[in-house]
Each structure stands twice: as C-alpha cells, then as structure tokens.
Design a protein that fits this description.
Layout lengths: L4 E6 L2 H9 L4 E5 L14 H13 L3 E6 L11 H11 L3 E4 L2 H10 L4 E4 L8 H9 L4 E3 L6 H9 L6 E8 L11 H6 L17 E3 L7 E3 L14 E3 L4 H7 L3 E4 L6 H20 L8 H6 L8 E2 L22 E11 L2 E6 L9 E4 L6 E3 L4 E3 L4 E2 L8 E5 L9 E5 L2
Parallel strand pairs: 1-2, 1-11, 2-3, 3-4, 4-5, 5-6, 6-7, 7-11, 10-12
Antiparallel strand pairs: 7-10, 8-9, 13-14, 13-20, 14-19, 15-16, 15-20, 17-18, 17-19
C-alpha cells in the first residue's frame, strides 16, 4: 500500500516550522516571484536553502511554486529562478504554464515537475499528455468527484502521482482561473494578487432605478452570493485513498502558523489512524474536532461526492473562530512549563496544550509566574516569558490555546 502524503502549506519560515514540526510529509512554499500567493512573506533564496536543509534532515520534501500565468516580461527571469531552485535542492517545482514546464526541463532536466491545479486537469487524456511532457505529478482540478479521480487514476501511468486539495478555502471560479479581482480592483489573481471579491457582499440594481439597491437575499447586509464554504475531507481519508489520491494537499499559504499547526497535525493523525485499519476507517471525534478549532468558514465536501449542494454561505464572509493561541511552550524542566505569551489569559483559565501527534491536553494552571518567579494573575504583556507548574512534559513548540467564550 502506497503511503499517503500529508502536504502542508508554508507562507513564511514560522509557518514552515509549524508544518515540519506537526507532521507534514512534504511542504509547499513560494519565493518572492512566480508564485500564486503574493501576500505572504514567502522565501528569499537564503531562507529557501535553509528550509530545504531543515526539511531534508527530517525526511520531509519541499515543493516550490512557480504556478503563475507569466507575461512576456517575466520569462527572462525564469532561468535564474529554476537554476537557484535546483541548487537549493528543492524536490519539485509546481508549474501551471506549459512554456515554463519546458523551460524547467531545459534548465534543470533532473527536477521533478508537478502540474498545478491552475492548469485545470479534469480528464485522463490531459494527465497522460502532461506525463509524456515530463510531469511526475498532477494536482487535479478541485471540481472533480471521487469517481472521476478514480477513472483518471485507472487510465494513467502508475508512477504519475495524483494530488488533490482536501482542506481549505474554495475558489468560486474554476480551478482558480478568476478575473473578478482584476476587473474590480486591478489586482491579478493569476499572479497571486487576488483581493477575494468573491467574499464581498452584493446587491442588485434595477436598470431604470439607478441608485436604488435591492438585496438578493432578504438581509440588511445584502447577500454573499459568491462566497464558497471551506473544504474539509478529514473524515474521508479512506475514500480519497481508494480513489487513488496519493498526496493530500492542505490549502493555506496565507493562513496563520496556528492554522498550519492544527490542520497539519489533524491530517497527520487522521492518516495514521487510517493505516491502523484501512478496511474499516472511522475517524475519532477528537481528531475531527481539531479542524473546528482554527479560524474557518463553514465546511463542505467540495465536489468529491458530485456537484455540491449548499456549498455557498450567503449570510456573511466572515470566519468562525472558537480558539485563540495564548502561548507557546519553550521548555519543560523540573516540573515547570516555561512559555512565551501570544495572547492574554488569566490564572485559573482552562487551557489546551497541543503537541505533535498527540491528543490535546487540558490544564487549568492555578498559579502563574513571571520570568523572575514572582506570582502573577495574568499574562498581560506581549511576548512575555512566564511559567506554571505541571508534572507533564511537553515538547518545545507545543501550542497553548484557550476557547473563546
């Protein structure tokens, strides 16, 4: 049985470390150019080299995005981009443009090539031709059902990897090929600059009554007719595996380090749980609940089970947030947990500590101490050092969170 790959996003070094420490088999990231996420900090060359070295030391792969749809003036810079990627030791380049694909083959003939979801692959004929052109992996369009994916798997070479997005934001446009942002605010979504106008509220205006706006849905805020729910397939790891999906891709290079930590950890544990009993997979409730403890929109199953119903959320485009990160564990020593603050909380608050591949631990510290060992009531200074007593030992980097009441 081929081991499923948990593929996590990394928008910067903090998020990269979260993915690496919380169970990713591979990480995908971008540099300052040629990537479809312009808003995160992304990686300069030195950071890329460092990330690859760290990942490889842990047996984790690094995939570098170059999946924009480039214009003429960008082509001359691509050779240096490819050569630097090869020298840095990245494991694969993710590409959407056929011209860039052929340039990768010319400038780095040994580089593994993954075809981005931006390419819009929805059939085995396209997958086969891209394989013949040198692709090792295809990231299928998000608009496919499990049955369609299974047919692509059955009618393509076995050494062609199948990757699918299984968690995160859904684009209202086909495979991300959207022009709304460019039309409305002159930000090119196909160059990673999407302003997400699909998340905005809209009204109708009757053509002869200009200036009179009518909500499409009876709500004083208008309606969010384009606002797609987030995808979540964590309860269906078995069905993804049976359909022939190899890599389970988590969306979110622009999301927080906390999001990357929790969601990567949840899918790591879900995959491990699947391999305990592949023929009778049942996800424990506590693992499923983890994906609800990050900021998220309402969840759906996307197109995996056919054309989705109730996949849009019309009331607003906001996120559901039930937990805040309040601290990170630095070390445990002599019955004391030493931490760095992220958000304020009080002595006696109920906390959850999330360590890699472990069920969250619930603690209620009855005493808190500042860095001088003096007792305090609250962690009220940004990034302050503090501690509390516990017989339990937690690894460095363990996330401490508190439920938002």
């Amino acid at each position: 049985m081929t081991k499923l790959e948990v593929l996590a996003p990394a928008g910067d070094t903090e998020r990269f470390n979260a993915a690496v420490n919380y169970g990713a088999d591979a990480v995908y990231l971008g540099r300052k150019t040629f990537g479809m996420r312009a808003s995160p900090m992304n990686f300069d060359l030195q950071q890329l080299v460092s990330a690859v070295n760290i990942a490889h030391a842990k047996g984790i792969k690094v995939y570098l995005t170059c999946n924009i749809l480039p214009r003429n003036d960008e082509i001359p810079q691509f050779e240096q981009f490819v050569r630097e990627a090869a020298e840095a030791g990245v494991d694969a380049l993710i590409v959407a443009d056929i011209g860039l694909l052929m340039m990768i083959k010319r400038f780095a003939p040994d580089m593994e090539i993954h075809i981005s979801t931006q390419t819009g692959i929805v059939n085995y004929a396209a997958a086969n031709e891209l394989y013949n052109m040198g692709a090792k992996r295809v990231v299928l369009a998000r608009e496919l059902s499990l049955g369609e994916i299974a047919e692509i798997r059955a009618k393509t070479p076995k050494d062609l990897d199948i990757e699918c997005f299984v968690h995160g934001a859904m684009c209202v446009s086909f495979s991300g090929r959207c022009l709304l942002s460019q039309y409305l605010v002159h930000r090119d979504a196909n160059h990673g600059e999407c302003a997400q106008p699909c998340r905005w509220g809209y009204y109708l205006m009757e053509e002869k009554r200009r200036g009179e706006y009518y909500p499409i849905f009876e709500d004083e805020k208008g309606t969010y007719i384009l606002n797609a729910k987030d995808m979540c397939m964590i309860e269906h790891i078995d069905k993804l595996a049976q359909a022939g999906v190899y890599s389970l891709k988590i969306e979110g290079r622009a999301k927080s380090a906390y999001y990357v930590t929790v969601v990567t950890n949840a899918y790591r544990m879900a995959v491990d749980e699947y391999y305990k009993n592949p023929d009778n997979f049942t996800l424990p409730d506590w693992i499923r609940d983890e994906v609800y403890k990050v900021s998220h929109r309402q969840y759906s199953k996307g197109f995996f089970f056919g054309t989705p119903e109730n996949s849009q959320y019309y009331e607003d485009s906001g996120y559901i947030r039930n937990f805040d990160v309040v601290a990170v564990v630095e070390e445990c020593r002599d019955g004391t947990v030493y931490c760095t603050q992220r958000n304020r909380f009080f002595r006696g608050d109920t906390l959850e500590l999330l360590a890699p591949s472990q069920k969250p631990t619930v603690l209620t510290p009855d005493k808190l101490f500042d860095e001088n060992g003096d007792e305090i009531e609250t962690t009220n200074h940004a990034m302050m050092k503090f501690s509390f007593k516990s017989d339990m030992v937690f690894p460095s980097g363990t996330v401490i969170r508190k439920e938002v009441k």
